[in-house]
Amino acid sequence: MHTSAADTKTTSALGNGHPGFPEPGSVAEVLMFKKLQERFPPQFQNIFPDKLAPRTVVIVPSLTMDQEILSKISGINHYEERLLCMLMLLRMPRTSIIYVTSETIDPIIIDYYLHMLPGITGYHALRRLTLLSCHDSSSKPLTQKILERPRLIKRIRDFIPPDHEAHMSCFNVTPLERTLAVQLQIPIYGCDPDLYELGSKSNSRKIFRECDLLVPAGFEDLHTEDDIINALAELKKQNPSLRKAVVKINDGFSGDGNAVFSYSGIEESNDPKQWVKEQLRERLKIVSDDLIYEMFMLKYKGMGGIVEAFIDGARKESPSVQCRVTPSGEYDVISTHDQELGGESGQVYIGAQFPASKEYSIELGAIGKKIAASLAKKGVLGRFAIDFISVLEKDGWKHYAIEINLRKGGTTHPYVMLQFLTDGHYNADEGIYYTSKGHLIRYYFCSDNLHSEKYVGLSPHDLIDIAMINDLHYDGTSQEGVMFHLIGALSQYGKLGVVCIGSTPQRAREFYAQIVTVLEKEC
Fold first, then answer.
1. Euclidean distance between CA atoms 179 and 141, whole angstroms
2. Cβ–Cβ under 8 Å, residues 242 and 310
3. CATH homologous superfamily of domain 313-441?
4. Minimal CA–CA distance to 390: which of 415, 368, 418?
5. CB-side neighbour CA atoms (13 Å) of 364
6. What topology does CATH give the domain 442-523?
7. What value does the mean pLDDT take over residues 486-515?
8. CA nearest 390: which of 364, 368, 370?
9. Nearest 5°: phi and psi at 317?
10. CA–CA gap between residue 87 and residue 107 (Å, rounded)
């Protein structure tokens, strides 16, 4: 089982654990966690369907991943705000939420979300919302910060009413989240950390092959620089026309654990392997601008990774499929997206259109269901996504499965917002999203990376003011409009996120264009 540097440091920092609980990472803790998880299926079956059932959801939006890679993402601490979409659970009048963050969230951001609650006043919702902060802006994972504060853990426990069933909701589940669940004595709606490695780049390729899916030519379970050199040379030998290859760290995030290698100039060499060895440092373009070659190789050695062919095509798309396995063992496809990737290498997630193109969304749904069935058999629980590269060829679209993300991701919060606001569902067999009104179909365009230096200095208050004056909001009557997220990142980083819901894909894009126009004018 892979343990990141952050996990190791935390386990060490916590020593023998807090009084009354097993040592973090111990067999006793693992057994206690499994007992807690056994309580969750009955809760899911009895409490979840009842909108009036008393329940508490403890939301811990920690990105518990490699912190040096995450630190290269602008405004990463504010990504904890992305799960504020789950405040929409407060539309159920006996549901309470405890939301924990590294730093205090501006009250106007909370008010902005509560204002969108259908059928519930802001006052009623606010009485059932508890916001807790670690008051810690360091780069450590949020869950680690919580574990280092036993008084905060006690406060979380004390805020759960005695007559409520409770569970945790997290961005991803690692040994740190397992330790926190044990110390809170509540289960997690997420994948057991013992299965986390199923979502690595290497294991994703193996699962895809088990499911008889198309996978780019390549090699997995690599660790050393020599492994990379050998794999790059062998790929070129197998396919002399190959222009580029992708080198990926097993546990990267949003493309920032990837690097692209160009074979340009190899034709002049009599010894391709020696050429790759000599050119690796110069021709390996690391996606994260701030991650130097030596650090990339150090991460690769520690986490392992893959090398695979860069898929080319005259028309190429980057769709994803989001799936869910419930505590009852049922699985389904809950969304498809066409992702927009940017950056110099075209590997960085920028935004997405929902649903994916009607040309292939149904095909993708069928593939996603096959992978979900495989993962359900392996014991996976909760939401996860599968990324693809799709290329149009003479005989139709070819979908290359790229990776599995056993966690929430960039397409989770936009879809959750749409679902909570419209009370609808995605029909994967038709590739269409229907609202609760039945005949209404909705689409959206979303981005986590609406960015401009001109936006720096705009406070959350400024953004809300600009939105209200320019009619940039979600209209519950028409079930169309705009929602903002990552609002806290705006002032310092000039960056925010948006979800634009429309009755057609074009209308959703028009909302986005309107936002950009308004912000340009106001700034």
1. 14
2. yes
3. ATP-grasp fold, B domain (3.30.470.20)
4. 368
5. 34
6. TATA-Binding Protein (3.30.310)
7. 96
8. 364
9. -125, 165
10. 13
